[in-house]
Structures are given as structure tokens and as C-alpha cells.
Amino acid sequence: MRLLGAVLLCLSASAGASGSDACATTPVAIPDFNAQGVVAPIVVDAGPGLVVETITVHLGITHPWVGDLVVTLESPSGEVVALLDRPGIPSTGFPGPFGCGGRDINAIFADDASVAAEDICSYAARPVITGTVRPNGSLSAFHGQPASGTWLLRLYDLQSYDVGTLTQACLQITTAPACPADINGDGKLNFFDFAAFITLFNAGDPAADINGDGELNFFDVAAYLNLFNAGCP
Amino acid sequence: MKVWWGVSVFALASFASAQVSTPLVVKQVAAPPSDIETGVVVLPDPAERGVASRSALLEVDLIEDPATGRWSWSAGVSVGARGAQVAFLPSIGASWSARIVSPGGRAADADGADVAEGAGGVWHDRERLAWSGSERLFDALAIDGAEQGDWRIEIESDRGVNGFVLVATDGEVELYTHRDSYSALAGEPVRLFASFSDGSRPRGLHASVRAPSGASFAVRGDPASGLLSFTPDEPGAYAVRVEAEGVDAAGDRFVLTTQHLVDVAEPADPLGGVRVDTGDERVVFEFQAQSGDRRVILASEVWGERDGAMVPVCWLARVCGSARSLAMDTRWLSMAGVDPATVELRRTRVHDVNSMNLLELVERMPAPAAGVALPPAPDAPTRDMLVSASPEAVLTPLDPGRGVLLPPGHRLLLVHGYCAPGNPFPTAHFSGSYAAFNDPGANRSHDEFALEILAQTAQMKSFGVAAHSQGSLASLHLYNFYFSGMDWARGARLIQTVGAPYQGTPLAGLGAVLGDVFGVGCGVNPNLTYLGAAAWLSTIPTSSRQNVWYWRTTFEVRPFVVNYCSLITRALLNAPEDGVVEAAAGVLPGATNMGLKEGWCHTNDMRDPQQTRDAQRNAQINQTARR
């Protein structure tokens, strides 16, 4: 592990979110054919000084025509990433001018997914968007941003005649300290952090493997000193 | 966000530039080997798709009597126990004074004025000619067989007004004429064969042909072989009236005719062999490009070797433009268990997308797909094996920016038929979301018709169909070949049809011939001939047909009267029939047959009510329709 003090906020990586996920209060009705949309806030309390290392979003939506939907996620810092943008649009053939007419979403949005949510349309599958899918934008845009705060999931239904509900929205975030040299995580960089590092080093704790080469030696001490000397933002 | 303002705006913007042509990714259609083995996607022998007739459409060429200045024409009709029908079809209305005279000398005027008192056993009707698009009324008489023997038809006029008389005697002998090919190309001979049902040879055989230019010519047939042949020199619709003269068992002379519509096309560029492009999930068979934007339906069987024997793998078809290719999901190879290196294409054919004229047929083409990675075989073909997106877009005349744009939503679409004045379904019979397709008086090929439906439904997210007559075939064509809102409709039944000529009607040929005389308003339609329908049906696999529920109707059978929907078309159709469509030709194998109901006719000017007005059936359609 390259960064000391990484925190796994949510351990679950399956479609069924665990109780440790940071989730929105659901259900939330998505107003039909409404450009204002609806916001589902998700409060994340990851503790001070932790930033996003990885993030995935577990989304459950019942909707008879997913091609109507636009879903975005806004971080506490104001960064916005589109998870879904009217899948199937534009189209000159399949699935048609109104996008994917499939029903329902129950999927994990993750950057490393092999299939894009926008391309997963089919006639028969229900939910039509399921499994682990790649979001429309890149969730890596959130990396390094503070994890704690209120995240805003915005949902828009931009075509009439079909109405849906948000049934689940959970964030799965792994965090890292904003300041890796702040070993004890008290928000201050001082002697006590150095002492904590030495304690870990002497104990043979892998957390002291600062350069991540699998060994504890002089080079880890040198790497920590470089981090310490670089200070904290 | 991509489309903040809603997709209808997108659609309009997208199609606004489509005044000339719109590129569409069309459906790549596939069918399992069973569709090949059962002949569903195989062109039937054209000899089995000929026209049978116990009637004669006689050309009336009035002759002037210099002494009186009157013009006249007469012909004898031998009436047996099953009676006869006579329809008078002058080129100009109210120009003939016509009557029939019984063997005993009793006369009945064609206009029916004295039928009741004079003839007894003669019935009169005055009707529009179904599908003619003409408001003109024509007189028709039925002789019920009470007085048998030689009757006479007599026509007089003060002018030399020509036309036709349609005579059906329901005699024992039937004339059968058929083409020997689905192909009719400019510069290549068109052959028809004629034979009598009793095995006798015609004494005389000839045909009258009207070319697209309007020029007419006669073709002398060979009575010994039954062959009539002519070589069209220009593309377009040729109207052919075959006239065969015979002698029945009693030694009496008779004349029977059949009417054919032969749509002649310019040849297509040859396919020129096949190039095989193997990908991860599908194999693409590519052929030589077609010059210009001519659209065709390209279809082929795929075969391969398994255990030393060639077996069918699947069947492929799609609408193509200049780029001609077919894509096959590699799971078909896995399911068939064949060696990809042995793949060959069989009966690869190119049809004109509108007339279904067969432009090219290649019996066998090696198309080895060696090296293709075979995925696990599914237990049964999946939907995405049967329908996928075409390898490239096709330029189409789709133009939703013009004309009718029906309301948005999820709807049941009421689709009228060929040459119809408008929606024939009473809207009071339908509830919930529905919309009426509106293309009055039009004559379109199935493909043009389908694209018009697609254009009018451009705002609909999804729709199911209740269709009448040709609208049924056009809807099925749309579902089969193009992506549309039909693909997303939900509910029980996608396409429900009434009075659909799935296997054609002889009225298509009649219309072609009569159009010469009094200008059939809606024009001719080669898709609706027996031969054209067979060619089209052979491109509709079972998986598409299974989405159709169809009803047929026929006239009410009342005792002691001559029963019919149309006294004119009765002479051409095999009962039971609805005045336009024979019940037998209204069958769509592979679809759900909802039965044949008496007391309903095809159009609203026939003797029984129009078949689309059956409230009981419409309620069922409304309740079960996908939307």
C-alpha cells in the first residue's frame, strides 16, 4: 500500500449494497418530463483529512423507459460527473429515437467496467442496465477530493409518458489521507507523526512500506522523510 | 447533457435534413435452420403461385352498324347448374345499353331495371370496383342456374365506347397460368405457362400486354406447350391478360382469361462473390457494392459441414443500400456444430425492395470463416441472434418532416390498407391511447408503406398495430426490417390484422389490366400479386410472423340467394372470400389464426358490413394490443 492510512469507507462491491455504504434516503420519485429533475443527497462522513481514492456508485431505479433518464453525481467540492445520459441516444436505428426502451436499472457504476451503461440496451433484459457498468463520465474526476460532505445525486427524466423512482443510491468510496505524512491522522504534521512512523517501522508493519516495494528498509525511511519535508496542503 | 429539450426536438432536428434520404441502421434479420427446412424463408416454386380462373375478362370492341349508326357487341355464355356472373365495365360510365338474354328469350337489362319481373333467377347489383380507387359504379348480374343453356350478352351504344365484360360461369374447367421465375428484367424474356385443369390443351392461346409506356401488343402462345413469352424492353409495370380457348367435355367452346401484373426491373449490379470478414462476435459476408442508392433486400442461407454432411446454419436477410453485406452471429455456427472453414452461402438472392422482383439468385458461394472463434452455443436462439443492427446504415426515403406526424406516447396504431380513403376502424371501438395512421388513397409498396408508418410514428416511443388489408403486411414488413417503436411495445399482441392478403390476391392483376381502360385510381401494386406476395413472405421468418394475430372474414351465406361480397370480384375469387381476399390467401403460416367470420366484407361498399367495423373483434384487439 503506497499511501498510509487508507480508509475503506464501503467494503461492499456487489450489487447488494452493504449497510456500511453511504446511501441516499429512498425511494425518491423522479418527476416526469422535467428538466429541473430531483436531487437525492448522500451524506458521507469519512472523517477529517480523507480524500477519495476510488469511488463506485450503486444505483437502483425503476423506470419503464431508461432512455428518458439523465443521472449525475456532484461531489461536496462541486465536481459533476454524468453517470447516465439518456442511453441509446442518439440513434439512427436501434434502439430508436427515444433511446433505450428497456426497464429498470440495478447496477454498479465503476470506471473499470468493461461495458458502458450507454451501450447495454436490449429488448429482453430486466433490469436492462445491470451488473457493473461504466458511467458516461469518469468517476476518477472525484479522486483526491474530500470524501466527507454531502454528495448530490441528480436525476432527470427528459421525456414524457414514463415515470420512475430512485430505489437505491449508494456510494462506495475508498479514501486516503489528504496528507500521507500525517500518520496519526490528527491533521497536524509534527514529531508525533514521525514517532508513529518509527513505531510502525520497528514493528514491521506493512503500513511503513512507504515506497510500496514490499520491503521495509532505509528507502522507506527516506521516502517518509521526503513526504514529511514536503509538508501538507 | 445531450438532449435537454426532449427527444421530439431531437427527432425533428434529425429528420429535418432528411428530405431526400435518411440513413437508418436497419435490422439484420436471422432465422434458425428450421425456417429453411420448413420452407418459411425459401422461395416457393413460381409454378405454384400462378393464377387460377373460371372467368373471362372479355375485351369489348364495339362494332358500328353503318345502317343505323349504332355500335354493338355480343357474346354467348353457357350457363350450367352453378349459374354465372356478368359484370359490365365500360371505359366511360353510362355509355352502354346492355342486357342478357336467356335461352328462352327472357331479357334482363344490365342496370337491373327489369330483373325482378323479367328474369327470375337473375340478381343485380351496382358496385364500385374494389381497390380501384374509382367512385364509378358498375352493373353486375348473377344468374343462379335456374335456367340453364346458352345465354347471350348484348351491348349497344351510340358511341364506340370500349371496355370489358367479366364473365364467370363456374364451369368445370379451370385455366391456370403461372410465371416460371420471380425475376422479370428488362431485356430478358418473361415466360408464362397456361394449362387447363382437365388436362386438355388450349385450342387457342394468346395474351394482350400493355407496356409501361402505354403501348399494347399481342403475344401469340404455343397451345402445345402452353408457353407465352415476351421480352420487355423497359422497366415498369406490364399488364398481361392471358386468353385461352378450349373445348369442354360436351364439345362446347369456352374462353377463360387470367390477368397478371409483371413488374419489370433494371438488372442490379452482380453480387460478384463474397468476402468473409470474421470478427469476435459475428461474421460479415460482404458482396460487391451496388452503384447508386438502389435499395434491395438481400437474403441468403448459410450452410456448413457437420459430420461429413452439409447442414443449414441459419438464414440471413436485410435491406441494403449501395453496401451489400449480411452479418451472422457466430453463435449460429456453434449451435449448428459446423466447421467454420466449410461455410457456404446458398440461394443468395437480391430482391428489389419495392417490387420484390428477383434481381439475382446465386445458388452456392463458398464462404469459409476459418479461424473464427466459436462461443458457447446457447440452448436456443436469443433475440439478439435473430435481430441485430446492420453493419452499415442504409439511405432510405424516410421523411418524418413531411405530412402527418401522429401524437407521441405509447399507442395502438390503427393502420388502413391499400388505396383506402382513411382509417376504416371506428374509433369508438378503441379506448386508451391510440392513433390513426393517415395516408388516404395511396398506393405504396410494402417498404414505402412501412417507412410511411415509421415517419408518422416518429413521435411515438412505442406502438402496437391494428391493421387492415395491406396495412397489415406493411406493418409486418416494418417490424421485420426496421427498428421502430413496435420493438418496444408492451402488452400481449403486437400486430393484429383483418382482411390481409398475406398470399396475394388476383385483384392486383385485374387492377393492372383494367387500369388501361378506365384508369385505376390508385395504380398497380406488384406486392399484392400471388407471386409478389410469395417473394415477400419468403423474407419474413417465423420469429416475426409469431407477432401477428390475424382475422379473416367472408360474406354471409343466406339460403336461396346468390351470396357474395362483391358481385364483380366474386368472379375472380375462390370462396370463401371477403370481396378482395380469398380466405386461403389470407393465411399467414407461423402467425396466430383468429378464425374466419361470416357476414363481413372487405370494404364498406360491399354487400355485408365492412370487416373493420366488427365491434366484438375490435374490443378484443383493443384489450390485448401492445402499446
Quick overview:
The complex is a heterodimer of chains A (233) and B (627). Chain A has 233 residues and is mainly β.
The outline of chain B comes out as globular
User: What overall form of chain A do the CA principal axes indicate?
Assistant: elongated
Give the H and E element order of chain A. Answer: EEEEEEEEEEEHH
- How many helices of chain A in DSSP terms? 2
Lateral strand order in the biggest sheet of chain B: 27-26-23-24-2-28
Query: If you consult CATH, what is the topology of the largest domain in chain B?
Result: Rossmann fold
**Integer tally of domains of chain B:** 4
Derived structural class of chain B = mainly beta
Number of strands of chain B: 35
Radius of gyration of chain A: 21 Å
Give a description of the structure.
The complex is a heterodimer of chains A (233) and B (627). By secondary structure, chain A is mainly beta. Chain A has two helices and eleven strands. Chain A has helices at 191-202, 218-230, and strands at 7-8, 22-23, 28-30, 34-44, 50-62, 69-74, 80-85, 105-109, 129-133, 149-157, 164-177. In chain A, a hairpin with a 5-residue loop joins strand 6 (69-74) and strand 7 (80-85). In chain A, helix 1 packs antiparallel against helix 2. Chain B folds into four domains: 26-45 and 268-392, Immunoglobulin-like (Sandwich); 55-168, Jelly Rolls (Sandwich), CATH 2.60.120; 186-264, Immunoglobulin-like (Sandwich), CATH 2.60.40; 398-513 and 526-624, Rossmann fold (3-Layer(aba) Sandwich). In chain B, the strands form eight sheets. Chain B has a six-stranded antiparallel β-sheet with strand order 27-26-23-24-2-28. Chain B is globular, with a radius of gyration of 26 Å. The A-B interface holds A 33, 35, 64-65, 67, 70, 82, 85-86, 89-99, 101, 122-124, 156, 158-162 and B 1-8, 10-11, 14, 22-27, 382-384, 388-390, 393, 408-410, 458, 461-462, 482-485, 487-488, 490.
